[in-house]
Amino acid sequence: MIPLPLSLGSSSTIINRFSISSTTSTSIIPMLSLRFIRTSLLLSPNLLPSCSSSSPTLLPLSCKFRSTMSYSTPASSSNLVFRQLFEKESSTYTYLLADASHPDKPALLIDPVDKMVDRDISLIQELGLKLIYAMNTHVHADHVTGTGLLKKKVPGVKSVISTASGSKADLHVEPGDKIYIGDFFLEVRATPGHTSGCVTYVTGEGSGQPQPRMAFTGDALLIRGCGRTDFQGGSSQQLYNSVHSQIFTLPKDTLLYPAHDYRGFTVTTVGEEMQYNPRLTKDEVIIFSLRSVKLYSSEILLWPT
């Protein structure tokens, strides 16, 4: 497909390599011009054992306890609509972001769950938003994504996932791509290790963007833990390098929102995880020596003992 010029005033734009047009039942979304940007990512052979989610030890943490619908205070921006939503069976967080200042109030969902699609649509309608994108941080093993149902129930919605995931979607993103909703955008950062196609979505920097920044880390980085690495092309050393090169390089006050939590926490920061995360704070050489540590599995996680 031949790239087309960027149409100004569109309700949302995604910057990538392709050009796409889409329509909704009520209006036509302007043609999107997409271009490609790359960022480097340090990847290494898999040397770590299957490290995984949160440590059983509770460490100091400045977080609120979750509810079925958590209204955690996001980065400051009077125009940003933000909701953190919870699905209790798989302990999954879904995130809703929208630009309330734009006439169309364009919105996106990150990591929707199939069982909660009706809840998500109802909330979007109540807030008067227009859902543009249904995005995944990776291919999920513990629940079925809600993007397919959202596409059926909300005409014009585009599904988004990384090219590296190998999964089907309307839009495939690469490291450095930017996804726009109104004046806000999310930058794509590759954070493989839990799966080979994991990405983290980070809010933009600069005037008009949420401050402090926000990062939606999927299963790559959990609060005081990380995603398991023993399936779906997982790699412990790759995950360690991903987090240190793509997440821990963000400002220390960056708010981190994971795809899961099993202990009641909702949000953390880069600075907190650099200090307290038991899986990712050790020196690389020391961490890799844990290969000899015996592991046992629980229903969801693997814990070093």
TrEMBL record:
* Assigned keywords, A-Z: Acetylation, Dioxygenase, Iron, Metal-binding, Mitochondrion, Oxidoreductase, Transit peptide
Task: Tell where it localizes.
Answer: Mitochondrion
GO cellular component annotations, sorted alphabetically? mitochondrion
Report the residue ranges that make up the Metallo-beta-lactamase domain in this protein. Answer: 91-260
Q: Which domain of life is it from?
A: Eukaryota
The chemistry this enzyme catalyses reads:
S-sulfanylglutathione + O2 + H2O = sulfite + glutathione + 2 H(+)
List required co-factors.
Fe(2+)
- Is the Disulfide bond keyword given for this protein? no
Q: Name one Pfam family in it.
A: Lactamase_B
Quote one Gene Ontology molecular function term: metal ion binding
One GO-annotated biological process of the protein: hydrogen sulfide metabolic process
Alphabetical list of InterPro entries matching this protein: Metallo-B-lactamas (IPR001279), Mito_Persulfide_Diox (IPR051682), POD-like_MBL-fold (IPR044528), RibonucZ/Hydroxyglut_hydro (IPR036866)
For the protein in the UniProt heading, the enzyme class is oxidoreductase
Q: What is its EC number?
A: 1.13.11.18
Family recorded in the similarity comment: Belongs to the metallo-beta-lactamase superfamily. Glyoxalase II family.
For this entry, the protein name equals: persulfide dioxygenase
| Species name | Kalanchoe fedtschenkoi (Lavender scallops)
